[in-house]
Amino acid sequence: MLRLVRASYLKSSGAVYFRTNCMKCKEDGRTEFSVKLADGPSLDDFVLGTKEPYEGKLKLEKGEKTRLRLPPWLKTEIPIGTNYSQLKSQLRKLNLSTVCEEARCPNIGECWGGGEHGTATATIMLMGDTCTRGCRFCSVKTSRAPQPPNRDEPVNTATAIADWGLDYVVLTSVDRDDMADGGAGHIAATVVEIKKRRADILVECLVPDFRGDQESIRKIVESKLDVFAHNIETVERLTPYVRDRRAHYRQSLSVLEGAKKCNPNLITKSSIMLGLGEMDQEIEQAMRDLRTAGVDALTLGQYMQPTKRHLKVVEYVTPEQFRIWENIGNELGFLYTASGPLVRSSYKAGEFFLTNILKSRRANDVQKNAST
Please, what sign has the CA dihedral across residues 179, 183, 184, 188? Predict the structure, then answer.
């Protein structure tokens, strides 16, 4: 008799199949399947993908021109399902863009499809799908003079989010250096519209650097968002090579620090991509710089080349190494550290974790006000 056993592979990123003959062993009556199961991979091995170490090449040598093959832990399933189709349809009707699509996120199937908990989430990208910058890692379209933002977008976005009944929503945007405030007023207006319709909803904004303008940062903070996010993207040495020339490592740190100064109770968040040629000591230094800037939450994920025109992957970091960085993040005192190959700055597990923290803070505030 043949039996098919299916095991979840990382973040719903595929399936591992085993086919076994269920014949009884003559010596002790145990089935051949039981023997193989006892000697076979454990649950941890399923999470990592395989019992045997991956023997493929994980890092390019200096000057090497070839491209690395995708390791098994980064292969994701095709996005399908009712939730995925419905969410895509609603976004198109309201003329809304998502970073999930524009940045070709590998987690789109899980997030839009609902994942194991059946909760569909999406990160809305405001002010269109065209950026004024041209970072070498990003697949979003670029132009010096994009179309003006849709004035109805704050209301449309708030309407859609209210209808989805989400507890937590992430708003991000393209860079708009063509606008006087970098689009800060437009983002802030969207947050205000959302809160007007759903006062209980938690809103995270993943924002540009606004060229370091502190007044633009203040507009975002005063919109009453719950999480202020801005990504440094990579280590300081690689920033001029990876990001647009107008983006600066220290400028990004000042954005995060400025938001914290405006509201010390606001949760701030950032993200680092790994696999671009950074060294371990540089990663740890970047993490320390973020803590010095008061950043509370950090995500670390694998850089994946979106097209042949973009930067090559220099190294595929193993899941084991990502766990080491997570432990270091916890030791440095981050409120939350999400570190893994498929983790992105907008990462559903992290958002649920922050939801619990924010709701607990709200409950404590209510209790304090009641007692006074």
Answer: positive
Amino acid, single-letter form, for residue 160: A
Stretch 174-184: mean pLDDT:
96
CA distance readout (Å), 208 to 27, 73, 90, 172, 249:
68, 30, 26, 8, 13
Question: What's the length of the chain?
Answer: 372
- Write the CA distances from 47 to 16, 42, 79, integer angstroms: 11, 9, 20
Specify the 3-state DSSP secondary structure of 339. Answer: strand
Task: Give whole-number Cα distances, 277 to 64, 241, 283, in Å.
Answer: 13, 11, 11
Paired sense of beta strands 123-126 and 97-98, if any = antiparallel
Could you read off the pLDDT of 255-313 as tens digits, one per residue?
A: 999 999 999 999 999 999 999 999 999 999 999 999 999 999 999 999 988 888 889 99
Tokens found for residue 228 = 């202020």
CA 92 to CA 69: how far, in whole Å?
34
Q: Indicate the DSSP class of residue 130.
A: E
For the segment 60-73, the average pLDDT, to the nearest whole number, is: 82
Q: Dihedral through CA 257, CA 262, CA 268, CA 274, nearest 10?
A: -30
The residue with greater pLDDT, 147 or 26, is 147
User: How crowded is the C-beta side of 22, counted as CA atoms within 13 Å?
Assistant: 6
β-pair partners for 141: 130
Q: Decide if 121 contacts 348 (C-beta within 8 A).
A: yes
Closest to 175 (Cα-Cα) out of 249, 125, 105: 125
Encoded amino acid at 271, one letter: S
Distance CA 187, CA 153 (A): 10
Task: For residue 361, give the amino acid letter.
Answer: R
Listed residue (95, 80, 98) closest to 12, CA to CA: 80
DSSP of 184-198, one letter per residue? HHHHHHHHHHHHHH-
232 band by pLDDT with thresholds 50, 70 and 90:
very high
